[in-house]
Write a structure and sequence with these properties.
heterodimer; A: 567 residues; 20 helices; globular; B: 190 residues; mainly alpha; 2 domains; 3-stranded antiparallel beta sheet; 7 helices; elongated
Chain lengths: 567, 190
Amino acid sequence: MTSQGWFLILGFVAILLALTKPVGAWLFALYQGRRTPLHLVLGPVERGFYALAGIDPNQEQGWRRYALHMLLFNTALLAFTYAVLRLQGVLPGNPQGLAGLSPHLAFNTAISFTTNTNWQSYGGESTMSNLSQMLGLTIHNFLSAATGIALAFALFRGFARREVKAIGNFWADVTRITLYLLLPACIVCTLFLIGSGVPQTLAGVVNVTTLEGASQSILLGPVASQEAIKMLGTNGGGFFNANSAHPFENPTALTNLVQMLSIFVIGFGLTWTFGKAVGNTRQGWAILSAMVILFLAGVTVTYAQEAAGNPVLHQLGVASGNMEGKEVRFGIAASALFSVVTTAASCGAVNSMHDSFTALGGMIPLFNMQLSEVVIGGVGAGIYGFLLFAILAVFVAGLMVGRTPEYVGKKIESREVKLAVLAIAVLPLMILSLTALSSLMEQGLAGPLNKGPHGFSEILYAFTSAVANNGSAFAGLTANTPWYNGLLGVAMWAGRFFLIVPMLAIAGGLAAKKRTPESAGSFPTTGGLWVGLLVGIVLIVGGLTFLPGLALGPIADHLAMIRGQTF
Amino acid sequence: MGNDFTSALRPAIVMTILFAVLLGLAYPLAMTGVGQALFPAQANGSLVRDASGTVIGSTVVGQAFTSDRYFQTRPSAAGHGYDGLASSGSNLGPTAQALVDRVKSDIEKRRAEGVTDLVPADLATASGSGLDPDLSLAAALAQAARVARVRGLPEARVRALVTHHLEGSIFGEPHVNVLALNRALDASGR
């Protein structure tokens, strides 16, 4: 570890803390449906959309209707992308003349992008035409992100409102978030990326005669426009197979920093928005503190492990530090940091190959996802996931002191706790059962590239990434098979919507409740004690379930590594 | 609920189409237009041409250098090496025997060239993309003696050329762009 590496990590967090309030305040304006300066330009677009679709943005919805519209919209988007991918061969914007995708790959990919996962069973450059990248995939990068933030808004309203049924209008939330936040931010970001060396063209392959006289084909395309929203919307689906490790996606150390900041900035901001919405910004800072503590703990482990490197290679005479799967321009600190950021958020973009990390260095990304990605988390999804843990935390605290639990002025009763447990249980249930199944079946065992415990880690990582809607991979796994495309597709859908529906039910129930004024008997949810309790609940409830799986995979791998055993 | 369902169909379908046009067509196409106008070189891949106008590479993307006359690029897992249509890392885990075998052969190659110290980590490992355009300073300097010998140049001059090409950023690691360095080497005469 170097002081420059720590300067990068701490500087990164400092920049985000400085951005938290301004971004949170902007999000709060959208939460309230207030007018922003951007309405001057984009207001007519917003109103035009409502008019054509027959939407009254002022008509608020109860949680069931909000959920129904959200689900139907996502299903329509899913069908649209499935069609675009299947028909790729006959559609324009296909300079490489690529064929349409197989049914199972199109199924997997359409679900993957709809659920904000962006798991990629394919290599972008050899599978996707320019039109598919833009029309099939980029739209999801915006709308799955906007859906996530809209859902967070709905839950915030549940906590903030009293004795009403409505939790907002889904269409108004999604449209405003897209038009007044994601799109303008992406335009700025795209231009920065192009200026830094990310291609943006409709051309295809360029043939190169290298200095040594060999021929090389380089693929260009509309990369920058997809890259910008891939990060900001915590999507993570790369234009190229190697994702943000590819020099065209992420050409410099500065673009790397901006990409990492883009992944986290909305997640940081939303904690402030939550605090503002419930009338006490300290509530937001308390949540953010717990998240940042968990985040920095993860970074420390991964950075230390990667900087120390792989003893198996050192014995052969390689200098220390694990550079397998890493790019020189980023080096170890910026690669380790990126891996923890992308899995703490539900981004899943990678600037280095997690499969080739040291055993424990690669375990942290895996563990981050297993904590339901509530350490900052995906845009919207992180905070609503974290609030489910907060509900459990006040419940546990209430049991300990023998009082009715309350959180931000709302009584937390058996309905909320049951629904929160239901939502949280989806993750271990799906991940562990599908991993176990794939570890037993021939079709599943055909997947891993690596042998020994690392092969098991590849399977565990895949299902963790899918259910948690992350999308990063231990990419040695051959996933483009009917078995994995099918199961991972189901896992992604369940991981997203089986959590969202109970969460919206909680939002609806909370909105209908009276406000309980804070009293001397209330458990304070702003101080250090509360932050510590949150960290503990996330680790114990979220993490402990996975300990046996981690012992079979990364921990066994680590023990083999330090003994010098190979497979 | 049945009535709710049908009334939700229209916004779901219409909004899908409207957003597809805005985000899937208008946004990327507008960005392509503006990007091409403002940054034509970068938007088209930062291509490098020789005197005759032939494209010889990109400043951003790495290419294979295997000859002893040049500074060699890192091992690559992209296709058969530096395949621009198949970017990839090796994805070999820390305890993979295949990784050990590959690294052994890379180390032997460097030992045969007279590198006696520990081999710089990037020179014995495959990058994430398989298209890494750079080398660390140590990895470039470890090759300076060989390049100087083959080209009949003084080693000090080759080492000076390397340090002259050192780029850095406080957000990443110092590195040398291999294509730029090798072009400078060719331009130096021998």
